Amino acid sequence: FVNLACVHFNLINVSCANEYHFTTKTVPVGEDVKLTCARQTDVLYRENLFWIRIVSGKKPELLGGTMNFDFDVEIRKSHITAKQEPGSFVLEINGAMESDDGVYYCIKVQNLNLTFLTGTFLSVKALTMKPVQQNRECSGSKPNQTSLILMLFMLMETVLMNV
Questions:
Q1: Of 45, 88, 103, 154, which residue has the fewest beta carbons closer than 10 angstroms?
Q2: Residue 43: what pLDDT?
Q3: Which domains are present in the chain?
Q4: Are residues 69 and 41 in contact, defined by beta-carbon separation less than 8 angstroms?
């Protein structure tokens, strides 16, 4: 994976913060996801923060933006919310879907300087269960200990393969 976030354009200066963090997060379908970006709260420090999502083959998508001073505005796009919290700017994905896969960046813009603060590669996976075929000698018999262990092992293997 090549990080193309730290590049230089002619009109604006694009860089990565010294404390830049890039993480990978894998979650099951339906789980809530919260991404956090530190926010300077000093009113004399003028900057704007933005959350964007980049998906291969699609245009970058602006998910929300805020100023550094405190105000109580939430930006909602479908099941995604961008909002301020004390000292941070967060992106919440309620009930993540496979279509939420992508790279999420928190970007700070100050004058003509654009700085990538955080990046997260989010992968949303559906849990799939493989059917377990059971062979019983008699319809009224209970499964023995060996078959229970085998079924448990197969279930654990299925869960671990989907994480």
A1: 45
A2: 72
A3: 13-125 (2.60.40.10), 127-163 (no CATH)
A4: yes
